[in-house]
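Structure in, sequence out. Go:
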């Protein structure tokens, strides 16, 4: 693993997030997120010549790949390299050719994995009303979370409560306040956290508690920078006042400079310049928070005499990652045609990027996503390598890297193919196949080849689990193959509560179901291998449907949180509500109706509040513009 650091702004591949097409269900968002399906549900018995042994092998592979030792297989971790070595070792132990991957198709390639503070260019000085100047200690008293631009800045300081603008909840720290061009000191999270009756979603954090929401509110008010201080409710409960990690909320042009301060620093400021609440003078963050909690009345006011001088600079950290591949050559007149069998082996590491529990910086083991799919590729490689006869077509088994960062591994392969793409006749992708017992097997891409529906229908007969053929492309590693007119099948068992959380552990996996899925996939692959002519590619028409979903917008979103928060549209479905309202690819959705949208979870929960036919206003960022668009949401069938 070779890691490098370059100044922010250098030409390094941009890391985007994973994306899938979504229809939304009122109620639990996890159900809403599942891919939407169009064809019939088919049932029937299982087959496998070596089922018990396969279950044992798969259990061993999934258990290891999802162990804490592998650090969630995150980009930039040693665990990702261990996973690659494990897959490579499995292939080699089977006697499969891995040397073909020595050329550009499998060589490491650089991606951005994070950023760190450029210490020599970063400082924060506070000057008080008595004229004294205090240079704060980086990492001890403050931590920058975003960059401040090239030039140092000096500005007056305003205390802005919790830094929340929620007029729909009758609470707005910025209402009537002049913070333009000034540094705002804000408290982390939100008022009344221990109050079940709080307008801020009771005892749960609402969207207003997030960093991105505070950045949006401060930016809209024209603030020059944000100095965040931990809320007393959390620090008193956990007995610690920790600073967030550097770069925790991203960077980029237009970002409001943002730093995290220790409570002791702000308390010292308030002792010299108390916050006035009626006839009271509040000289600590704890006292201010208690007053706001009691009255739910903002206490935004200048801190006379205080100025902040600062410069926050970051360096980009890059790392090299690589795909892992093995080849079983074909034999006969079709030997030069290639079938790709792939799965991504990376996950989200410690959850700093892509986690649905972004505050939980712990190992996200990714047993379902995607140790299960990776194990499937290795198992299929074993089965075909032990057959007496060579296949009629070449089989290329690939473990893709950096899927969670925007399909980077599969896109790297497609730009540097090991074998000509014009002779690549099909791609089978396995991503999250660990929960057949929950909702059966969703088989996407069935209509991407003229012959696939008949094959799937025939082989689904007699199974003891559900196979749900689907028409949509989705957003896993097969997507790039489909865009190059290569038929695909995407094996997927749906989203569960553990998705992108620290709870996606081996103990939750239906290993028996994984084995059944592979048995089925093997028979499907046999049929494709044996076809006298290559599968005939077809463009998939329309959209997949799932009757349990009740709200449809029609976007394919990024899973990464863009600079400034919100959800970026990676694709807009033609003739969808989004398309009709002129929502475009690249637009960032920041608000739906009265509800702010700061991330994927916010989008999911917000759309779940509506139903087909509802007319809503959706706010999007489009470059430097902020637009409000009128949208009529639809039902899954497409009608309002």
């Amino acid at each position: 693993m070779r890691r490098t650091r370059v100044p922010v702004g250098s030409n390094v591949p941009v890391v985007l997030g994973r994306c899938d097409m979504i229809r939304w269900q009122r109620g639990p968002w996890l159900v809403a997120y599942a891919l939407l399906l169009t064809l019939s549900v088919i049932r029937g018995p299982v087959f496998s010549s070596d089922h018990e042994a396969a279950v044992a092998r798969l259990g061993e592979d999934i258990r290891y790949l999802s162990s804490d030792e592998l650090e969630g297989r995150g980009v930039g971790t040693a665990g990702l390299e261990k996973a690659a070595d494990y897959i490579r070792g499995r292939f080699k132990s089977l006697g499969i050719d891995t040397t073909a991957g020595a050329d550009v198709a499998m060589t490491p390639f650089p991606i951005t994995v994070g950023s760190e503070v450029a210490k020599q260019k970063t400082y924060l000085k506070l000057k008080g009303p008595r004229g004294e100047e205090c240079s704060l200690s980086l990492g001890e008293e403050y931590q920058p979370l975003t960059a401040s631009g090239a030039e140092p800045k000096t500005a007056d300081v305003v205390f802005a409560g919790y830094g929340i603008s929620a007029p729909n909840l009758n609470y707005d720290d910025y209402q009537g306040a002049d913070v333009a061009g000034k540094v705002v000191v804000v408290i982390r999270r939100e008022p009344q956290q221990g109050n079940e009756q709080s307008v801020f979603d009771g005892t749960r954090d609402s969207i207003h508690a997030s960093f991105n929401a505070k950045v949006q509110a401060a930016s809209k008010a024209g603030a020059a920078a944000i100095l965040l201080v931990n809320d007393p409710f959390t620090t008193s409960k956990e007995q610690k006042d920790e600073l967030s990690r550097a770069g925790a909320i991203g960077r980029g042009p237009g970002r409001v400079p943002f730093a995290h301060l220790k409570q002791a620093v702000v308390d010292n400021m308030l002792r010299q310049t108390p916050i006035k609440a009626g006839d009271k003078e509040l000289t600590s963050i704890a006292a201010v928070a208690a007053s706001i909690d009691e009255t739910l009345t903002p206490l935004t006011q200048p801190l006379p005499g205080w100025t902040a001088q600062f410069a926050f600079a970051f360096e980009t950290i890059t790392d090299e990652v690589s795909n892992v591949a093995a080849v079983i050559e074909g034999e006969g007149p079709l030997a030069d045609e290639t079938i790709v069998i792939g799965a991504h082996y990376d996950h989200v590491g410690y959850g700093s990027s892509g986690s649905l529990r972004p505050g939980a910086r712990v190992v996200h083991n990714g047993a379902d996503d995607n140790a299960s799919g990776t194990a499937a590729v290795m198992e299929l490689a074993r089965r075909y390598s032990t057959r007496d006869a060579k296949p009629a077509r070449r089989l290329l088994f690939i473990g893709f890297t950096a899927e969670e960062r925007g399909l980077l591994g599969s896109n790297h392969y497609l730009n540097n193919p090991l074998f000509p793409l014009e002779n690549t006749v099909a791609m089978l992708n396995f991503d999250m196949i660990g929960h057949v017992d929950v909702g059966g097997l969703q088989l996407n891409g069935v209509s991407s080849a003229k012959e696939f529906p008949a094959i799937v229908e025939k082989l689904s007969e007699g199974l003891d689990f559900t196979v749900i053929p689907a028409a949509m492309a989705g957003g896993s590693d097969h997507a790039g193959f489909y865009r190059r007119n290569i038929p695909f099948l995407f094996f997927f068992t749906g989203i569960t509560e553990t998705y992108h959380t620290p709870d996606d552990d081996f103990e939750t996996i239906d290993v028996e179901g994984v084995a059944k899925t592979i048995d089925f996939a093997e028979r499907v692959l046999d049929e494709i291998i044996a076809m006298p002519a290559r599968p005939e590619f077809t463009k998939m028409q329309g959209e997949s449907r799932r009757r349990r979903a009740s709200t449809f917008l029609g976007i394919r979103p990024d899973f990464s949180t863009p600079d400034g928060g919100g959800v970026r549209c990676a694709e807009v479905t033609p003739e969808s509500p989004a398309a009709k309202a002129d929502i475009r690819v690249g637009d960032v959705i920041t608000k739906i109706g009265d509800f702010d949208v700061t991330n994927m979870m916010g989008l999911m929960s917000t759309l779940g509040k509506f139903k087909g036919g509802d007319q809503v206003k959706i706010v999007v960022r489009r470059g430097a513009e902020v637009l409000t668009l009128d949208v009529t949401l639809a039902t899954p069938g497409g009608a309002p």
